[in-house]
């Protein structure tokens, strides 16, 4: 009841004209910045830090929260329309969303993403109010073996349901893990696969990999086939969601937060793993699983809802423990420290007005995000009316700008197009793209958690399975691997009638 009273007071803070305006500006800036490949919400918040020096802390963080949610949604817009993820959490959306756009259903995909973000953010923000102490208390107990087990689950889950065969899925994963090895070993400082280049010592940014494999690879693939097919504009299709679309999406919208929120609250979690797992879950549960890979709307609604709820979960851990689980949360933590505020268990007591005003602004920003972006879905979709040669030339241009913006180095452009050629080759030989991106995102973290677990157990492999949580996760992995074999065996034993 005390939390509810403080939340009502927070709405009194968030609904002042100045704070409403800042929330709207944050949502708009976040959406537009999220649309640009390589310039995600973390960079947006970092760039705007100096701008907020003249604002009071509450106003600054209300604006930052709008940028965070807006950036998450903006990244999905280019994933759907141009197959170009604006940030890593939008990678999964490109799988089904871009296929929908190519078949003339771009407006429906964007609407499903917008409502998914609304549902995920609303449920996730309620989770902040109700479950923050519980989630934070349990997140502290999760150790290196548990992190490693979760990442193995993500690897196995996605490679098992994508592509023409499991072998191709694991081959794609191996490519991503190899790219993830590039750079300095965080524990020993030894360089790996840098070929003597100092520019590669920091590794390859995941945004460059995602944009190269998705955007550049797709553009080269389309360019190689334009003369063999229709090179006219892609149809936009009718706006809004039909009754059948709503029937297929309401359950994924509600399931996404169940997966996304807890993972966002786990230190070192973020939105990547829950979006991957949400996609896998929707493919398993859908009655239209044959449409997956060719434009299933559930594959947009579920992951987008999970990503938005994960953003809320991220704020739980940052506010209650002072632990940032994403790059954006890390920048926001730096912003707190800039104002002389230290997030942690005492934050809710010492800065109650700021915290509850921020939480209330999340509800307000979520509504603003839906109100602003749902009517814009048909407008965004009209980008697809551009003739395809010009459209994909534009994609290459913006992909190059986004890659260069990551660090301002020419070598990033070279790496971008090398990875783009690799993406083209993967399409040519039927290798799915997503496992490679997963390998790059989670590979280094999985290696680090595995080595920590082995160090704690003095090199014993039992250190990887010495918790109940990790044993349960590995049991799920075994089921995922063995179940198709068991099903195939039982079918072969059935008598032909």
TrEMBL record:
Residues annotated as domain DUF112: 20-437
InterPro entries tied to this protein: DUF112_TM
Organism domain of life: Bacteria
Transmembrane annotation, as ranges: 20-49, 61-82, 109-135, 147-164, 169-184, 204-223, 315-336, 356-377, 389-407, 413-442, 463-486
Keywords of the record: Membrane, Transmembrane, Transmembrane helix
Pfam families linked: TctA
Entries under PANTHER family matching the protein: TRICARBOXYLIC TRANSPORT PROTEIN (PTHR35342)
Protein name: Putative tricarboxylic transport membrane protein
Lineage: Bacteria, Bacillati, Actinomycetota, Actinomycetes, Pseudonocardiales
